[in-house]
Design a protein that fits this description.
Layout: E1 10-11, E2 16-17, E3 21-23, H1 36-48, E4 53-59, H2 77-92, E5 97-101, E6 114-115, E7 129-130, H3 133-152, E8 157-162, H4 167-172, H5 187-190, H6 192-205, E9 210-218, H7 227-240, E10 244-249, H8 269-275, E11 283-285, H9 292-300, E12 306-309, H10 312-315, H11 319-324, H12 342-345, E13 375-379, H13 383-394, E14 398-402, H14 412-415, H15 423-437, E15 441-443, E16 458-461, E17 465-467, E18 479-480, H16 481-485, E19 493-497, H17 501-512, H18 521-528, E20 551-555, H19 571-580, E21 584-586, E22 589-595, E23 598-603, E24 606-610, E25 614-617, E26 621-623, H20 626-633, E27 639-640, H21 652-665
Parallel strand pairs: 3-4, 3-12, 4-5, 5-8, 6-7, 8-9, 9-10, 10-11, 11-12, 13-14, 13-16, 14-15, 16-27, 18-25, 19-20, 19-25, 20-21
Antiparallel strand pairs: 1-2, 17-26, 22-23, 23-24
Helix pairs in contact: 1-2, 3-6, 6-7, 13-21, 17-19
The protein binds flavin-adenine dinucleotide (FAD), NADP nicotinamide-adenine-dinucleotide phosphate (NAP) and iron/sulfur cluster (SF4).
Residues 339, 468, 470, 497-503, 505, 556-558, 567, 618-621, 649-651 line the site of NADP nicotinamide-adenine-dinucleotide phosphate.
């Protein structure tokens, strides 16, 4: 059997999980749409895919504890009936599902938020109200009531959210708890709230119900928990009635990345391994685990009893079924980009997935078999073309995919050269394996013209983009980002023109000097200041970045702070990474010319020569529309997608989405 540890059942006493895979909690925004059929289909699709146990997005126990005003929860009989639609559908699909109870405390985006002490979070505009004794009792009672309503709604368990800096964490550490009553001061007092919550939840739901407690193993904030405190809490929570301990890593306000793509795979699993011998209940490990071989290795090494993966189930609901049937190469990988999931959540948009546009759109976007198979030519094997080809072939069309390059992938083959973006290797490999499996005819190394495309029923042009030439005057040519990423010599001082996504990536490539911290977890932890909670509170250490391979200036014309338009949840990581390497990030720059001695610029009205060896151009893209124009002239109808359609604000998310949606209609 493949992955024997991952696919082994787990006996919890009153119930047995069919394997060791937990789909971790994610806020998708689906519950707030009020379309409960859609919510049910999201979870049922993943239950059909074979996951052992799922946890829902966080449900508020009361209005003051909701992450934002109007956050979903089990408040009325109608709410319970709505959730019943979900749990029934999951059970029909052979799955199990627990409801997460999430009290946000001072992270609640509301002036009514409450906490241990009236100390505002750095990531919220609202100072919380300090709870009195009656207020604390109300919160505990509301959480216990939410748990019994979850049971009434047909859930198999609850997860009590005790990590990521939410309400229960806020009582645990002196960073946020300045109380002097029985809820503050000594650790025994500070852990009273989470332990009481677990005890009261267990009393409310009875013995035959799963109670997961998500415990913060490393807070990554000043005055966070020590390891000794983490263990004391874990043991107390076990005694209070938890059936499983799930791992949480870092508070939301921590300045250390914990799930972004540049975080090494399983970078924090060693902490779960250290927790495991301290308790007798099963423990779950999490964070940056996205492939069955990684999960299997962790379980085989005794790190944990189960593995939690959340975003990987957006990318591929059939993760477990594919792993179990020898089709692991066909698991669409989560590349940990956050672009369509967390970035959407934090912009008030519904979650979906860059790799899988059907995620959270299961009832709206379907790839049904076509009643009328056609011959389809797709030109360009970048993400837009590959996705269009794949969906069309899966629907039963006969697809031929052309690319002038020798490999599929388009610009993804450049992205994967950037240190910290190793996950793009898996994305390209998945596309290649899926294209082969779908029986698509593939013709590489051939620039396609109009004559190649005559006779097809449908033609899709996905010829992508080329770098924009910013036409800066001077005797010396700038180097394109393509030449740079492919290894052109650049010297020891470099100016990068353009501070968009590609400019930032190229700057990271240049300072890294061919060495990726993402594949060296110990170095990554040193660079970011991740220490040992056994020796420093919260596991914070002084960041000790390696010296940059060269001096880099990253420039843009806009007067705003460079990087302001990067991903909502990842932009700060790129800026911090470059800051640690001493990169000078300047906005408000005018380019006068490239000279033998460097790049002449003007900034705040002052002219200066940056004495750099090379100037690298990352000044955006223009569409490759040549083929589309020729087809139009020849009177051949074509669908134009991805960068060939619109280059502005293009990214792989839009390219894949456009490819999938077109092919779903063909
Ligand atoms: P392309 O990827 O450009 O593919 C077009 C394909 O068409 C190419 O393979 C080309 O060879 C082929 N072609 C062109 N003309 C012809 C012809 N006449 N005949 C045959 N074949 C032809 N996006 C993100 O979302 N997230 C990221 O983190 C990210 N990082 C990036 C990092 C770098 C360094 C770069 C360069 C890009 C990054 N992108 C990222 C952007 C993303 O890769 C592009 O937006 C995306 O690849 C565009 O997809 P596409 O299919 O439209 O075009
Ligand atoms: P971009 O984000 O549009 O940035 C282009 C940069 O070039 C801007 O900084 C712009 O700044 C500058 N520029 C534009 N025209 C110029 C001109 N004529 N002369 C000089 N400078 C000029 O595009 P990109 O960096 O090429 O990225 C392409 C796409 O890939 C983007 O959509 C991006 O989101 C995506 N991508 C995403 C990631 C990610 O991590 N999510 C990473 C890489 C790429 P000024 O106009 O202010 O000078
Ligand atoms: Fe993973 Fe990116 Fe999809 Fe989010 S959008 S699930 S991070 S691949």
């Amino acid at each position: 059997m493949p992955y024997p540890h991952l696919l082994a059942p787990l006996d919890l006493g009153h119930i047995t999980l069919k394997n060791r895979v937990l789909m971790g909690s994610m806020h998708t925004g689906l519950e707030e749409t009020g379309d409960w059929n859609r919510v049910a289909e999201f979870y049922a699709t993943r239950a059909r895919g074979g996951v052992g146990l799922m946890v829902t997005g966080g449900m508020a126990p009361n209005p003051e504890g909701g992450v934002f005003p109007g956050a979903a929860g089990l408040f009325t009989p109608q709410d319970i009936a709505n959730h019943r639609i979900v749990t029934d559908r999951v059970h029909e699909a052979g799955g199990l599902i627990a409801m997460q109870i999430l009290h946000a405390g001072r992270y609640a985006y509301s002036k009514d938020c409450v906490s241990a002490s009236a100390i505002k979070s750095p990531i919220s505009p609202f100072p919380p109200r300090e709870l009195d004794e009656a207020g604390i009792e109300k919160q505990i009672a509301d959480i216990a009531t939410a748990a019994s309503r979850a049971r009434e709604a047909g859930y198999d368990g609850v997860e009590i959210m005790g990590s990521e800096g939410y309400f229960l964490n806020q009582f645990l550490v002196t960073h946020t708890n300045h109380r002097t009553d029985r809820w503050g001061g000594s650790f025994e007092n500070r852990m009273r709230l989470p332990v009481d919550v677990v005890r009261r939840v267990r009393a409310a739901v009875g013995a035959d119900f799963i109670v997961i407690y998500r415990i913060s193993l490393i807070d990554l904030i000043p005055d966070g928990s020590t390891w000794e405190e983490v263990i004391s809490l874990a043991r107390a929570v076990e005694v209070a009635g938890a059936s499983i301990l799930n791992t949480g890593i870092g508070w939301h306000e921590a300045r250390v990345p914990t799930i972004a793509t540049s975080v090494p795979r399983a970078a924090f699993a060693h902490l779960t391994a250290r927790l495991r011998p301290e308790v007798t209940i099963p423990v779950i490990t999490s964070n940056r685990i996205n492939a069955p071989e990684v999960a299997e290795a962790l379980l085989a090494a005794g790190t944990a009893d189960m593995v939690s993966m959340a975003r990987p189930f957006l990318a591929d609901p059939d993760f477990v079924a594919k792993a179990a049937t020898g089709r692991a190469d066909q698991i669409a990988p989560c590349i940990a980009c956050n672009q369509a999931c967390l970035d959407h959540t934090f912009s008030g948009k519904l979650t979906t997935c860059l790799v899988n546009p059907r995620a959270c759109h299961e009832t709206l976007l379907s790839y049904d078999p076509t009643p009328a198979p056609k011959s389809v030519a797709v030109v360009g094997a970048g993400p837009a073309g590959m996705m269009a080809a794949l969906v069309a072939a899966r629907r039963g069309h006969r697809v031929t995919l052309f690319d002038q390059a020798e490999d599929v992938g388009g610009q993804l083959n450049l992205a994967r050269l950037v240190p910290g973006k190793e996950e793009f290797n898996g994305l390209v490999a998945w596309f290649a394996a899926s294209i082969a499996e779908a029986g698509i005819e593939i013709r590489l190394g051939q620039a396609v013209g109009v004559d190649h495309l005559r006779g097809f029923d449908e033609v899709v042009v996905a010829t992508g983009v080329s770098p924009r030439d910013p036409a800066i005057a001077g005797q010396v040519q700038g180097l394109s980002y393509i030449e740079t990423l492919r290894g052109a010599a650049v010297g020891s001082k470099v100016a990068v023109i353009g501070a968009g996504g590609i400019g930032f990536d190229v700057a990271e490539f240049l300072v890294a000097g061919g060495h990726s911290l993402t594949t060296h977890p110990d170095e990554w932890r040193r660079e970011w200041g991740v220490g040992d909670p056994a020796t420093s509170r919260g596991g914070l250490a002084e960041p000790a970045p390696e010296a940059a391979a060269r001096q880099v200036w990253l420039l843009q014309r806009k007067a705003e702070k460079p990087g302001r338009r990067l991903g909502k949840t990842t932009g700060w990581i790129h800026r911090a990474a470059l800051q640690m390497k001493g990169v000078k990030m300047w906005g408000g720059v005018s380019y006068i010319g490239i000279e033998e001695g460097g790049l002449r610029i003007s900034r705040d009205g002052v002219e200066e020569l940056l004495a750099v060896d090379r100037v690298i151009l990352c000044a955006g893209q223009v569409p490759n529309r040549g083929l589309a124009d020729l087809l139009a002239e020849a009177g051949i109808a074509a669908h134009v997608i991805g960068g060939a359609d619109v280059a502005a604000e293009l990214d792989a998310k839009r390219a894949i989405d456009q490819g999938a949606r077109l092919a779903a209609r063909l």
